[in-house]
Specification:
single chain; alpha+beta; three-stranded antiparallel beta sheet; 2 helices; elongated
Amino acid sequence: MSAHAGLRTSVLRNRCPHCGHATDRVTAVDAGRGPEGGDLSICVACGEWAVFADDLTLRKPTGDEFIAIGKDALCRRARAAWVKAFEPPPTPPASPGPGT
């Protein structure tokens, strides 16, 4: 476990329920505790939200949870930060071929 600027990182092996990406750690914004059942996680590979179950495995959010995530300002900022850091830039349109 390490802490830096209010962040706490712990070893916790898991798999994203959306893309299957294997993780081996989790960083909590609240340095005072690790993840608990009901806490949210964002996958570094696909950017989708997951919810920690009581046994700390990850599951997909329910419909109601997904709506609440979309309405939460902190969640929207976290997702925007993921997009800025990890989403590949758009592919430029193909140029017309010769003779067109």
